[in-house]
Amino acid sequence: MATPAQPPERDFKERFNHQDMAIERGKDSGALTRREVRRLQREQDKVRRLMDDLRREAYSPREAQRRIDWRLDWIDRRIYELSTNSEVAPHFRPNSPPPPPPR
């Protein structure tokens, strides 16, 4: 029995790296809140688990590639949407007065 072909790991690794850099840029610039960063990182973890599941369940490489690409595309869109929404990380609010001192 032949072993099933594996999806192209290198392409996925490059996409994860690109997404990680985009998430870091958004966090550093204040475009992404901590909550949004955690949410995006959890989605990436889900895709990694999906990759393991597809490999373990011996999906065809074409079907595995399609499913993983769809999820990574979705994360790319979420990174863009969350980076351009009106929420700004609290420590990056330009021209805002400092918070009141605790009582």
From TrEMBL:
Biased composition (Basic and acidic residues): 8-38
Region (Disordered): 1-38
Protein name: Uncharacterized protein
Source species of the chain: Caldichromatium japonicum
